[in-house]
Amino acid sequence: MSADAALSYEPEDESGAHSAAIILRLRGLGIANRDVLKAIETVPRALFVPKDFRRHAYSDHALPIDCGQTIATPTLVARMIAALDVGDRHSVLEIGTGSGYQTAVLARLARRVTTIERFRTLVKHAERHWIALGLRNISAVVADGTLGWSRQAPFDRILISAAFAAPPVKLLAQLGDSGVLVAPIGPARGPQRLTLFQRSGEAFDTRDLGATRFLPVVSGVALSL
């Protein structure tokens, strides 16, 4: 999305009916956390969707964004964030900034969000949108997300938006005691399961949150985008 496209968005472009439909859909899926629903309701997904796809912004479909990436469906974002159980005193690490939509929802809930993205282009676009929404509690880093961000660890919550073939040991190590990490686990072409890890001392309890499908995680930083 170009800077002009981002800056041309106006709140009235969003219909209240669209937001209401999303909230009803989420409640139908059993997502009852009022804070999560309010955050979803108050972050305009249309702002983060390329102009050519904006008419589909409130459909429950993943949509393409720059750098060959996608913006996740509203229901998937809500499921993951609801499972993460974010509170206003929590520091959150997000792996995979993407469009910045999920980051914005997290920022409505958490004390601080640190988000890591391998594509500089996506970070620059997302930052414009966060500024437009008045979000000041986000730190975006262009870096290798597979390594996490040890200089600010431990984190209370970690949310990963790319599939790891096995539990992400380096990221689990950056989770504070009683902290929660949610990530898709499984091979790129095989079955993946959305999995919750909760730390208890040096041990981790796990919970299966259901089948999912994400692009595989890629290490390193993109050189040209």
Describe the structure.
- The chain has 225 residues and is α/β, with parallel strands linked by helices.
- It has seven helices and nine strands.
- The protein has helices spanning 3-8, 16-28, 34-42, 74-84, 101-109, 120-132, 169-172; strands at residues 63-64, 70-71, 91-95, 112-117, 138-142, 155-160, 175-185, 192-200, 203-212.
- The chain is globular, with a radius of gyration of 16 Å.
- It starts with a helix and ends in a 13-residue tail after the last strand.
List the helices and strands and how they pair.
Layout: H1 3-8, H2 16-28, H3 34-42, E1 63-64, E2 70-71, H4 74-84, E3 91-95, H5 101-109, E4 112-117, H6 120-132, E5 138-142, E6 155-160, H7 169-172, E7 175-185, E8 192-200, E9 203-212
Parallel strand pairs: 3-4, 3-6, 4-5, 6-7
Antiparallel strand pairs: 1-2, 7-8, 8-9
What would you say about this model in short?
The chain has 225 residues and is α/β, with parallel strands linked by helices. It has helices spanning 3-8, 16-28, 34-42, 74-84, 101-109, 120-132, 169-172; strands spanning 63-64, 70-71, 91-95, 112-117, 138-142, 155-160, 175-185, 192-200, 203-212. The chain has one domain (3-212): Vaccinia Virus protein VP39 (Rossmann fold, 3-Layer(aba) Sandwich).
